[in-house]
Specification:
The protein is of the alpha/beta class and about 625 residues long. The protein contains 27 helices and 10 strands. Helix 6 packs parallel to helix 7 and helix 23 packs antiparallel against helix 24.
Length: about 625
């Protein structure tokens, strides 16, 4: 945790005079190279980026004297938790040699008496402890024993405990009393990435600050400023790639910039950053997205292979695709998102174009398939092949209608939305018509898709098989004269409802369109209402379904089970069956089937004595 050798003057404009010299006064060769994440570590609240709400709250607290005894800082890696804790310790103990500062303050224009030692983590009154390696009660007992003594030279004793969630339960309990009523000269600052693991008894004794991820455009400006100070030329597109890869972490972004400067050995270009991170070119990712949206598998394969050959990781390619799908979806919902200057011009322009052409259902479908595909590729032994199969799935469904569109097409045009007519397989996967095929529009007009490869009678036969799909919606004028007919009628439209009725419904009475039933305890609560609604929808008549208190008949499934048991018992009593079972020990009757009797052939005699069978071409009477 100690940041040995760190100068508080870095980026703070410290006064180089006096005992507390700035970093500029120290000969560079004696210090050696220091990574950017340490060299440009913030030393005051003005240097913190992306944490304005926390800075405003702390500023008001210090100015009004409402300083609590403990803070807890939480957030993802690299957003400045430990740095903020050191800045707090510096603000609590800020003093100048002339004695002009009388109390805690957030205004620290120059390096004070204690600032250098605090920022370098070597001040005797500012104690830092890493809870990851000091988890036990003995470590906490040392703090609780020493907190009683006044600070040696500073105004406050400040205890900074990093990764506090890793303390043991006994250690937390030992902290509670001291944390609630510490001496006036003691302050505590906790930092953690797992706030849920900190007991609520500790949280209730601290002021909590959630340090948020830094936005990409703020990170880009920060990295550009540091690049200027380092006198290194970096392309804006390279800064954008680094900011995206850092995922809101300032430390990660500085580490990546440090690595990119070493990798490029000159001007840091976007291509250098992509090679370093194993990323695909953003423009090429968009080209791949467009090929998939057109259903052009050949172009998608070629683009993916080219990216893979240049070093792009298949998982990263799919992740970038998913990120772009998310970006297009967000533009579709909030068009102003495309105005973000942190994004490239190509990304913003083409994102708007796709958002206008692709429907929300298509984008959601691509997102779900990519989300599942990324997990498959991560666990696959051959990631490249697995990624290609994911691309095949996405391209294959690109120009197929969504379920609601397929229903609308059937209702309006009588067409059949079959898999064979719309996917790339029917095109042979070649970059022919698909290469120029338009993207699915936001409000597609009803299309009649190919139903059969042949023509004539075969096509008519296949079209006729689609007729029941239309009949599912309504069949006006249907007369259902028995409960069995009702169940059979429902089974052709909703198999789950049919199974529920066979299992959970007892038939009582049927009078025209009034059905009385009794329910089994396992029946769903809304079954009568659902049954009435669907019968009215499917028959075009007004129905009334009433629940009766009568016993009613057994459910149809129970009746079938009773009939099956009776048949099996009758079969077991048959002497022939008993003889067979005696010859095969352990045999049992599984099912009893009734074979229809063979009907004798109907013969017609002609005038010349030739006999004809109804089911045969003919035969001679002498045969």
């Amino acid at each position: 945790m100690a940041d040995a050798g760190h100068s508080g003057a870095a980026g703070s404009g410290a006064d180089p005079s006096g005992a507390h010299r700035s970093e500029a006064a120290v000969p560079a060769p004696s210090r050696g190279y220091r990574v950017l994440a340490r060299k440009y570590r913030p030393t005051n609240f003005a240097d913190l980026i992306g944490q304005e709400p926390m800075v405003r709250t702390l500023s008001n607290a210090f100015e009004t004297g409402r300083i609590p005894q403990a803070w807890i800082l939480t957030g993802v890696r690299g957003v400045g938790k430990t740095t903020t804790a050191r800045i707090l310790a510096r603000a609590l103990n800020y003093e100048l040699p002339d004695g002009s500062v009388k109390g805690p303050t957030i205004h620290m224009p120059v390096t004070g008496l204690h600032c250098q030692a605090i920022m370098e983590s070597r001040h005797i009154d500012v104690l830092e402890m890493d809870a990851a390696s000091h988890t036990g009660i003995d470590d906490v007992r040392q703090i609780t024993d020493g907190v009683r003594y006044a600070p040696s030279s500073a105004r406050y004793k400040v205890y900074i405990i990093d990764e506090v969630h890793m303390l043991s339960e006994k250690a937390f309990n030992a902290f509670l009393k001291t944390l609630e009523e510490p001496p006036e000269h003691a302050k505590f600052v906790f930092a953690t990435t797992e706030i849920r693991k900190v007991p609520v008894t500790v949280l209730s004794r601290c002021q909590r600050f959630d340090l948020r991820r830094v936005d990409a455009d703020v990170l880009m400006a920060h990295l550009g400023n540091i690049a200027n100070k380092e006198e290194v030329e970096v392309e804006p597109e390279a800064l954008a790639a680094i900011a995206r890869a850092a995922e809101g972490s300032v430390r990660d972004s500085l580490s990546l910039l440090d690595q990119a400067i070493a990798h490029a050995s000159g001007i840091v270009r976007a291509e250098d950053v992509r090679q370093m991170l194993g990323l695909a070119d953003r423009t090429r990712v968009i080209d791949l997205f467009e090929a998939l949206a057109r259903g052009d598998i050949a172009s998608a394969f070629k683009e993916f292979r080219d990216q893979y050959d240049t070093g792009a990781d298949p998982v990263v390619v799919l992740s970038d695709l998913a990120e772009f799908v998310n970006f297009v979806t967000r533009i579709k919902v909030v068009p102003a998102i495309a105005d973000n200057v942190a994004l490239g011009e190509t990304e913003r322009v083409r994102g708007r174009e796709f958002a206008g052409k692709l429907s929300m259902r298509v984008l959601s479908r691509m997102w779900q398939m990519l989300l599942k595909g990324i997990a498959e590729v991560q666990s696959a032994t051959r990631p490249q092949a697995a990624a290609e199969m994911v691309l095949v799935r996405i391209a294959y469904i690109a120009d197929l209608p969504t379920p609601d569109e397929a229903i609308r097409m059937i209702e309006q045009g009588g067409g059949s939305a079959t898999a064979g007519g719309g996917g790339p397989a029917s095109r042979g996967g070649a970059a022919g018509p698909a290469a120029s095929a338009p993207l699915r529009s936001e409000a597609p007009a009803p299309r009649t898709m190919a139903v059969a490869r042949g023509g004539g009678a075969e096509a008519s036969a296949r079209l006729s098989t689609a007729a029941p799909a239309t009949a599912r919606q309504a069949a006006p004028g249907v007369e259902l004269r028995s409960y069995a007919e009702i169940v059979t009628f429902i089974g052709k439209r909703d198999i789950l409802l049919q199974k529920t009725m066979e299992r959970d419904v007892r038939f009582v009475r049927l009078d025209d369109a009034k059905l009385e039933i009794a329910l089994e305890p396992s029946a769903p609560r809304g079954l009568p209402n659902e049954l009435q609604r669907k019968l009215e929808q499917w028959t075009g008549r007004r129905w009334m379904v009433a629940v009766s208190q009568a016993e009613g008949e057994r459910p149809l499934r129970a009746q079938r089970e009773m009939l099956r048991s009776a048949r099996e018992r009758a079969a077991e009593a048959d002497p022939r069956v008993q003889e067979v079972m005696a010859h095969f020990p352990g045999a049992r009757i599984v099912e009893v089937r009734h074979t229809p009797a063979v009907q004798p052939a109907k013969v017609t005699m002609s005038d010349d004595g030739t006999a004809f069978d109804d089911d045969m071409d003919g035969f001679d009477g002498d045969d």
